[in-house]
Every structure is written in C-alpha cells, then in structure tokens.
Amino acid sequence: MGEDTTTPTAEVGGARPTGGEPTLIAENCEVTYRVYADKRPTFRELLVRRFKPREYTAIRAVRGISFTAYAGEAIGVIGPNGSGKSTLMGAIAGLLPVTGGRVWARSEPALLGVGAALQPALSGRRNIILGGLALGLTRKEIDERLPEIIEFCDLGPAIDLPLKTYSSGMRARLHFALASSIVPDVLIIDEALAVGDKDFRKRSQKRISKLRKKAGTVFLVSHSMKAITDTCTRVLWLEDGQLRADGPAEDIVKAYGDAGS
Amino acid sequence: MSATTHPADPRLKLLGVRPSLWNYLTDVWRRRDFAKEIASGEVRGQNMDTVLGNVWHILNPLLMAGVYMLIFGVILDIARADNFPAFIVVGVFVFHFSQKTIMSGARSITANEGLIRSIRFPRAVLPLSTVLGHTFAFVPSVVIMLIIAVSTGERINVWWLLLVPIFLVQLLFNVGATFIVARLTDLFRDLTNVLPFVFRLLFYMSGVLYSVDRFVDAGLMREAFNYNPFFVYVSLMRGPVLAEFEPLDPQLAIIGVVWALVLLVAGFLFFRAGEERYGRG
C-alpha cells in the first residue's frame, strides 16, 4: 500500500443514547481505495512499460470512524471537501466496500445522492419506476406509490422528459422523492436538500420529520449549515477521514463555524 | 447466524457480507419485476425510432435468411439440402437468437452504470433481464419459422414437441454465456469490438448456410463440429422440423445439455465473483 500513516482512531464518537433504539452501528469503519496515477493503459503502453503494474496511491478516505445512530435521530454530516463524508455514507449504504471495521444496521440503508443519474435517456417517470423496483418494491407497490412520488417531485410536465435534460435541483427532487418513498430504517441524503429550492426544502423537511417519527434515522450530508440546523438533532463533523466531533447539532455547527473552515 | 448479528442487539445485521448463494438467488427472484421492466425497456428501446417498431425483431432475421437464400440458393446454387428455404430459416433464426442475446448481454453491466452506482441490488438481475427480453422477442420468430417450414412442404408431426426442451436448453446456454461476456465486457470494453468477429466466425463454422455432412468429410474435422455448441443447437432444432434429418441425434443432444449446464454454472460463478466491482471502473 502506498501512503500509510498511523492514525489513532477518534474516540469522540461512541454511544450517545437519546432514548431510541440503535438503527445503525459503525465500528472503527475504514475505507481505503486506490487512485491510479493515470488512466487504464493501452496495450502499447503496457508493451513500452514491459507490463509493470500501474502506480497508484492508496487513499484512506475514512480512517476508523465509530458511532451509533438511534431511531428518531436526524444526523447531519459536515466537514470540508474531501473529508470523507460521501465515502462514509457510501460505505454505510453498502455501495462501497468497507476495508476495515464493521457496520451493522437494522435493514439496508437507502442512499440516493445527486451525483449519479439512474438512466439518463429515460424519462423521470420511468426512472422512478425503475429505481423503485431496483430498491426492491414490487410492480404493484410502485404503481400505487407513483402518483404520490410524482406529486412530491412537483416537476410538472418535465416528469416525462429524459433525465439527462434535468438540472441538478430537479434531479435531487426526484432522487429524494424516490428514496424517501420506501420508508427505510435508515435514509441517507447526500447534498440533495442544498440544491432544492425553498419550497422543496420545506416539504422535504416535513417528510424527514415524518420518517423520524416512524422510528427511522436520517443522515443528511450538506455544506449548508442552515439546512443542518433546521433539520438535524445531532451532527458528525468529519475532518481528514476522521470523526472530529459528534454532538448536538447547534454546538457542533457553532464549533465548526468558529474553526473557520 | 450469530456472527452476522450484533452481540448487543440481534436485530442489527452486519452489512457488506457476501450473501449466501441461496440468499443471493432469492434476492434476484425478489427483483423479478425489476428484471421485467429492464427487459421490456431494452426490447422496446432497440427499435424505438423506427416506423415498424417491434416488427423488426422478426423482420431482421427474415430478411437475413432471404439474402442468404438468394446468394447461396439462387445465384451460387449450392443449395444441397432437400428443403433449402426451411433449412436456412431455421439455421439463421436459431443462431440469431443466441447471437442477439449474448451480444446485448455484453453491454448489460456497462449500459446500466447509473443504476449500479446509485442503488444496491443483486447485479445478476441485469444480464438475466437481457436474456429474458430477447427470449420473449424470439418466440414470435419461432412461429414464423415453423410457418415457413410448413409452407415449404414440411409436415407437422409429434417430434415438434422436442422443440420445447431444445429451446430451453439453448436458453440456459445463452444465460451462462451472457453472464461471462457481461463481466468480461465490464473488465475490457474492447470486447464489444471483438464480439462481432467471433460471432461471424462461429456463424460460418456452425453449418447455418450449408449442410456440414455434405461438405465436410468424416474424420477429425467433422467430429470437431459436434462440439461447437452453436452447430449443436442449430442441428438439434433442424432435426424435428426438417424431414431430411433424424428427429433427434442423441450424441448432439447430450453435448448440447452438457454445454448448457457447464456454461450456466461456470458463468454464474464467474459473474458473481465480480459482484462488488461492477460499475466502479
């Protein structure tokens, strides 16, 4: 492995019971991935370099993070760019392999970030159907929920246009409406609220509190401190792949602001 | 199963463990509506911008058979089969079925990267959907194929019932082959440029256009044909339909079944070994 610094794991996290039952436990979670210096070599380049393996750097994006999430919590995840927020969320959602430590959850967490487009060539409506089915809904269930999801998106006639024509805000609406429609035990929202407009933010906050009442846990990754304090009860502050602080939303957001990041 | 649940709270399950074979398969089965949706989208999408739409699924192999009939049956006049039109149509349709399925299946992972990156689901659903879609698109072609056989002088007989198991065996072969090319294409995108030539070669090596028995002398060369799965499935399908052939060649039948089962198991295991790596480039 390339870069390898010995880093003590942050012990700030750990159990912080807030009355509810645990829905997700991350124990010393680590994610390391390889970043190659250049693209996949062509055959000619392989010949020139005599089949020497490609050089890469091992990036320790998440280095030993532990926390326990409880039912009814809305947990904000903050930190500077590249601090490992999205990687950590991808790991607890099962989309990225955890290279160290363990993650336990009540059921498989649902994550829909704004980064990925499902099927760019298909309409928003078909994407909702396809996404819902991929998440494990049956045809009957998605047909029943479709009108409500479309109404929540509030995209108007754009719902029948291809997804590739959507702005990031429109895509975020669709992803949020889809992910929150399956009522998961753990819902992870990556940056989706920050790109939505005021009206949509209001409606999504309502839906988040509804989910919390149903004993779910919501993770919200955002750079908007207002979105975090409006929605979250607790905040995880990540810095350099480690948990710098874990506590009540207001306190941590204030400390984060004071740190001048 | 105590190793996969949390010691303090048994309702918490360990994430990221590779599911057992049984759980994986039930997970795939649970997404059957998802598979159907992808399959119908794929089949419809292929001819979306055309006037005739889905009719092309039948018209395409039919026109191809017409071209071969014109060149080999009329112009070159090497049609050494009793019922050349039926001979060509069965050959072209049966070969086309596997070729279409496997070549589309090669793109089943790479064409659905957005879905793979956003949602966790058993990836085997994707190649299976492709096979499903092309299988349903093939059924009307079988009907056309049999109508052509009858209208060129073949008689409907009880041996036609054999077409169902032969079709199913070929289907299993397609599933296995699709699993293999789907993973290989995800690893090496170059494969999409190579596959057309592989199938072109296989097409000429499988006796689709000529009767192998009349052109290849008995011996090692002739024996080699019997182990080419495409020749096997084309010949097995011709058996019941064309009066010229034995309804069922037992040696070919055994080879066909062995190919299908070996490829199905090996293909699935090979595909599953890459489960966590799909869509990560």
Structural features, described:
The complex is a heterodimer of chains A (261) and B (281). Chain A is of the alpha/beta class and 261 residues long. Chain A is built from 9 helices and 9 strands. In chain A, the strands form 2 sheets. Chain A has a 6-stranded mixed β-sheet with strand order 5-6-7-3-8-9, sandwiched between helices. A 3-stranded antiparallel β-sheet of chain A has the order 2-1-4. In chain A, strand 8 (234-239) and strand 9 (242-248) form a beta hairpin. The two termini of chain A are 30 Å apart. With 281 residues, chain B is an all-alpha fold. Chain B is 66% helix and 1% strand. The longest helix of chain B has 27 residues, at 125-151. Chain B is elongated and about 80 Å long. Chains A and B meet through strand 1, strand 4, strand 5 and helix 3 of A and strand 1, helix 2 and helix 5 of B.
Write the layout of secondary structure elements.
The complex is a heterodimer of chains A (261) and B (281).
Chain A: E1 22-36, H1 43-48, E2 56-70, E3 74-78, H2 85-92, E4 100-105, E5 110-113, H3 124-134, H4 139-153, H5 168-181, E6 186-190, H6 192-195, H7 198-213, E7 217-221, H8 225-231, E8 234-239, E9 242-248, H9 249-258
Parallel strand pairs in A: 3-7, 3-8, 5-6, 6-7
Antiparallel strand pairs in A: 1-2, 1-4, 8-9
Helix pairs in contact in A: 3-4, 3-5, 4-5, 5-7
Chain B: E1 13-14, H1 21-30, H2 32-46, H3 56-75, H4 84-105, H5 113-118, H6 125-151, H7 163-187, H8 191-205, H9 212-215, H10 220-225, H11 229-241, H12 250-272
